[in-house]
Write a structure and sequence with these properties.
This protein is of the alpha+beta class and 529 residues long. It contains 18 helices and 22 strands. The protein has helices spanning 14-29, 58-66, 70-76, 114-120, 127-131, 134-139, 164-178, 224-229, 296-310, 355-369, 375-405, 413-419, 426-434, 454-463, 473-477, 482-502, 506-523, 525-528, and strands at 7-11, 37-42, 53-54, 80-82, 84-88, 98-102, 159-162, 182-185, 188-193, 199-204, 209-211, 214-217, 234-236, 245-252, 264-269, 272-278, 282-289, 322-325, 329-331, 335-336, 339-341, 347-348. It has a seven-stranded mixed sheet with strand order 6-5-15-16-17-14-18. It has a six-stranded mixed sheet with strand order 8-2-1-12-21-20. It is globular and about 70 Å long. The mean pLDDT is 94.
């Protein structure tokens, strides 16, 4: 049990595998003991599922953690900047036909609950517009920072839109060339175990035996290690979140200089919703839907109509539409003995709010930062990891369901079924009752590492048009903080006006970074070679 942990074997590549490999290797280089050996084994026969992905602002920290240049990342991954999500046609209420969930917290949120004062004044303006200047920046299609800003610096908080295949390739090159990750190609044919049940090695179809001390399962939905080998039960949440299909397509811009949206656009449909993300050279679209409520032909027709309406001049017959199938849910235990699951092998709910990649980042960070020195410590690290991830999965289900539960759309069984409280998590039912008299705040998302803080609940709840029944406006107007709230709201308006004058368009920033990165590469003989 006091066997030192010296070798980490990551089984499976793609975004999840290579993020984990790079983070673990980078963290290992800073240890006061001999750096870990990090090996990534990838099948040459399994393509990357990625269809173009959105990230959270945490990705900036991840890229910095592993030593990647932001300019290189933007250029090589066809990346652009994401500042949140714009929701359209979700609520079913004419007065709330669209709203924005930005990445920035409301100003002074630690001390001031803005929803109380916004509601006391009738909630007449858009909530996000009042509490943060970022909403106006998103509406104008502007970038989160100026062209000459330092890498990873920002005026308003941001993540990225990126090409998943290019990102995995960049991470692979960086991991192997800069961080010392050993790359092995082959299919796993057998898993060998120690007498105590730990995994000893994996046997590949190439004849190579890859031994290790810790194994990371990044084999996708197959979950070869955590599922097939260890039998961790899959917990389906399809009774709460119905979507289990996505039809994805990549659509080129009509003109190379067309504007790039600075947020993911999510447009509700009769049986699901369509994502629309803007990269540097194209848009990534997909219709996420429930196969229990519509058939694939109808879903495809809906997506085709969306393409026609948003991309006039594009030849739809030349586009490649592909269907992705998934079961929404997650493994009940993600770390068993010396095996931990990351990415799709751990679980997947649906693309709404882009929670998949952030869980990969968080899992990789925990593994890297808390890497057990020996086998005796590993079980404690595993228990904490399982507890944290179980909490996060439950909160993801709750938060995503909020988007559907607060809709009053009546155009299909899909939306009316989502409104049935029997499909809501118990935690959401209790909170919805409480929010009839008080707005969400810190007690509703109390952990420091919440994936969705209470501010996110406010953006969605009030963007969807929810209004409490029992909140006392008179009491709020007598609150001593009412003057401070007015100052904050006024300050946001001034700041938004300043930012809309000074910030460039997202297209201008992406073009400037791509040009700068190309120039630097040409001037660097090592990179140019």
């Amino acid at each position: 049990m006091d066997q030192p942990i010296r070798k980490v074997v990551i089984v499976g590549g793609g975004t999840a595998g290579w993020i984990t490999a790079c983070v673990v290797a980078a963290e290992s280089l800073g240890r006061d003991v001999e750096p870990l050996q990090v090996v990534l084994v990838e099948s040459p026969d399994i393509p990357i599922i990625g269809v173009g992905e959105g990230t959270w602002p945490s990705m900036r920290m991840t890229l910095q953690r592993i030593g990647l240049s932001e300019d290189d990342f933007v250029r090589e991954c066809d990346a652009s900047f994401k500042q949140g999500t714009r929701f359209r046609d979700w609520s079913g209420r004419p007065e709330a036909s669209q709203y924005i969930h930005p990445f920035s917290f409301p100003v002074d949120y630690a001390e001031l609950n803005p929803a109380r004062f916004w509601l006391a004044h009738g909630g007449r303006s858009a909530f996000a517009d009042l509490v943060t200047p970022q909403a106006r920046v998103i509406e104008r299609g502007l970038a989160p920072k100026q062209v000459d800003a330092p890498q990873y610096a920002f005026s308003v908080n941001y993540g990225y839109h990126l090409d998943a295949n290019s990102f995995a390739g960049l991470l692979q090159r960086h991991g192997v060339q800069k961080l010392g990750v050993r790359y092995v190609r082959g299919n796993c044919e057998r898993i060998d175990s120690h007498p105590d049940g730990d995994i000893a090695a994996i046997a590949l179809d190439t004849g190579e035996i890859v031994a290790g001390d810790l194994f990371v399962d990044c084999t996708g939905h197959k979950a070869l290690l955590i599922g097939s080998h260890y039998g961790s039960r899959f917990h389906s949440v399809k009774d709460m979140l119905f979507n289990d299909r996505a039809i994805a397509v990549q659509v080129p811009y009509v003109n190379p200089d067309d504007p790039i949206a600075s947020a993911t656009l999510s447009t509700a449909q009769p049986h699901g919703w369509i994502w629309d993300i803007g990269l540097g050279s194209r848009r990534g679209l997909g219709y996420v839907h429930s196969s229990s409520h519509t058939d694939e032909d109808s879903a495809l027709s809906s997506l085709e109509r969306y393409v026609d309406s948003t991309s006039p001049g594009v030849d739809r017959d030349r586009l490649n539409f592909r269907t992705l199938r998934f079961e929404p849910g997650y493994r009940e235990k993600l770390w068993i003995r010396n095996c931990v699951a990351v990415g799709l092998s751990a679980g997947f709910i649906e693309p709404l709010e882009a929670s998949a990649l952030v869980l990969v980042e968080q899992s990789a960070a925990i593994i890297g930062e808390q890497m057990p020195r020996d086998r005796a410590i590993m079980d404690t690290v595993a228990d904490r990891f399982n507890g944290k991830m179980s909490y996060h999965w439950a909160r993801i289900v709750e938060f995503l369901k909020l988007h559907y539960a607060t809709s009053v759309r009546e155009d299909s069984d899909y939306w009316t079924d989502n409104r049935e409280q029997t499909s809501w998590p118990d935690s959401l039912r209790r909170k919805m009752i409480l929010w009839q008299q008080q707005p969400p705040w810190h007690d509703d998302a109390p952990r420091l590492d919440e994936l969705f803080p209470s501010a996110s609940y406010q953006y969605v709840l009030y963007g969807m048009g929810f209004r409490p029944r029992y909140l006392s406006a008179d009491k709020t107007r007598r609150d001593p903080k009412v003057r401070r709230a007015d100052e904050v709201f006024h300050g946001n308006r001034i700041k938004a006006q300043q930012m809309t004058r000074l910030l460039p368009s997202t297209r201008a920033l992406v073009s400037a970074i791509a040009h700068r990165a190309t120039t630097q590469a040409c001037n660097d003989p090592i990179r140019a070679s």
